[in-house]
């Protein structure tokens, strides 16, 4: 791979604080390994529009970066893995999935409150149907209000008193250095994160084999890739996208084989909601465990179970 080191690898990134931080993580891993890199900002419709994500459509944050990659303006694209459509893109390879951040959602509430301490009627901001459905299913009488905007904008709505609380990904807050505002990290038993939340996706062109190998050897983390594969397989088999009311969390766990020896397996929990828009939200939950090499099958199996339970009416 000597000729890769002689090249400067151009890494495309969205311009938001979160995206820049995420790109910085990958750039540092590469420079620490002796690779020269250049960071190239790319603007996307998802950054320019304030319309609800569900209205702008799948791939709002990812397609412009992928275009820059295919046009050879950049050699590497760094995305939040949960924003990545599950369908593979022609000409593009998911070269690496780096070590995951804490995948859980976090509550940022006024006066240091936790979810259980918020009074009935408290207004919680989130534009995510998945968070909306799981919040409403807690039966706490919370009023959920759709919001959008970057992390600072959302935190600001609590600080200003406009909302009692917001729910955000803990990973995003960590990456922009705002863990201090979290008042409760939500247990996945109550709030399953989005499939691939907290993970990054590092893409390159399929014809750029040197960069692909470099990313695989320096940046990829096997346990994270296995987990993300199971979660995204579940999402994909539900035929749902990143704005669907679907949550999933896979973890590599220690288990015993037939002879009593310790082996690693993969455990997957999933949630799907129906009736999020109306008054009758219904939450379906399932979980299963499999061998590590069966991540994809595990995801599809859990999706089939959720469909059996009635998840067929899951909206996009
Ligand atoms: N949908 C936007 C988005 N995409 C990735 C993250 C956070 C970082 C991550 O989950 O990896 C966020 C913000 C949020 O959901 O709070």
From TrEMBL:
<dbReference type="GO" id="GO:0004418">
    <property type="term" value="F:hydroxymethylbilane synthase activity"/>
</dbReference>
<comment type="similarity">
    <text>Belongs to the HMBS family.</text>
</comment>
<comment type="subunit">
    <text>Monomer.</text>
</comment>
<dbReference type="InterPro" id="IPR022417">
    <property type="entry name" value="Porphobilin_deaminase_N"/>
</dbReference>
<dbReference type="GO" id="GO:0006782">
    <property type="term" value="P:protoporphyrinogen IX biosynthetic process"/>
</dbReference>
<dbReference type="InterPro" id="IPR036803">
    <property type="entry name" value="Porphobilinogen_deaminase_C_sf"/>
</dbReference>
<protein>
    <recommendedName>
        <fullName>Porphobilinogen deaminase</fullName>
        <ecNumber>2.5.1.61</ecNumber>
    </recommendedName>
</protein>
<dbReference type="InterPro" id="IPR022419">
    <property type="entry name" value="Porphobilin_deaminase_cofac_BS"/>
</dbReference>
<dbReference type="InterPro" id="IPR000860">
    <property type="entry name" value="HemC"/>
</dbReference>
<dbReference type="InterPro" id="IPR022418">
    <property type="entry name" value="Porphobilinogen_deaminase_C"/>
</dbReference>
<feature type="modified residue" description="S-(dipyrrolylmethanemethyl)cysteine">
    <location>
        <position position="242"/>
    </location>
</feature>
<dbReference type="Pfam" id="PF03900">
    <property type="entry name" value="Porphobil_deamC"/>
</dbReference>
<dbReference type="Pfam" id="PF01379">
    <property type="entry name" value="Porphobil_deam"/>
</dbReference>
<dbReference type="GO" id="GO:0005737">
    <property type="term" value="C:cytoplasm"/>
</dbReference>
<keyword id="KW-0808">Transferase</keyword>
<keyword id="KW-0627">Porphyrin biosynthesis</keyword>
<comment type="function">
    <text>Tetrapolymerization of the monopyrrole PBG into the hydroxymethylbilane pre-uroporphyrinogen in several discrete steps.</text>
</comment>
């Amino acid at each position: 791979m000597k000729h890769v080191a002689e090249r400067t690898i151009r890494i495309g990134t969205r311009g938001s604080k979160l995206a820049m931080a995420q790109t910085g993580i990958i750039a540092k891993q590469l420079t620490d390994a002796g690779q020269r890199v250049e960071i190239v900002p790319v603007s996307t419709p998802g950054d320019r529009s304030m319309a609800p994500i569900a209205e702008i459509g799948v791939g709002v944050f990812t397609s412009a970066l992928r275009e820059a990659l295919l046009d050879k303006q950049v050699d590497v694209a760094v995305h939040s893995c949960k924003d990545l459509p599950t369908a593979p893109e022609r000409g593009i390879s998911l070269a690496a999935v780096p070590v995951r951040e804490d995948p859980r959602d976090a509550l940022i509430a006024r006066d240091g409150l936790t979810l259980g301490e918020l009074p009935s009627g408290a207004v919680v901001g989130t534009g995510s149907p998945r968070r909306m459905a799981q919040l409403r299913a807690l039966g706490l009488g919370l009023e959920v209000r759709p919001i959008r905007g970057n992390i600072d904008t959302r935190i600001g709505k609590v600080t200003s008193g406009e909302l009692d609380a917001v729910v955000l990904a803990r990973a995003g807050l960590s990456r922009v250095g705002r863990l201090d505002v979290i008042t409760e990290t939500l247990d996945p038993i109550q709030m399953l994160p989005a499939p691939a939340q907290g993970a990054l996706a590092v893409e390159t062109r399929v014809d750029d084999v040197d960069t692909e190998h470099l990313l695989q050897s320096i940046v990829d983390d096997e346990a994270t890739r296995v987990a993300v594969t199971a979660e995204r397989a579940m999402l994909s088999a539900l035929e749902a996208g990143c704005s669907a009311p679907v949550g999933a969390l896979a973890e590599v766990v220690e288990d015993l084989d037939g002879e009593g020896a310790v082996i690693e397996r993969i455990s997957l929990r999933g949630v799907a909601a129906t009736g999020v828009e109306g008054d009758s939200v219904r939450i379906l939950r399932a979980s299963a465990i499999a061998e590590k090499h069966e991540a994809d099958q595990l995801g599809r199996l859990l999706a089939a179970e959720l469909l059996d339970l009635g998840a067929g009416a899951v909206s996009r």
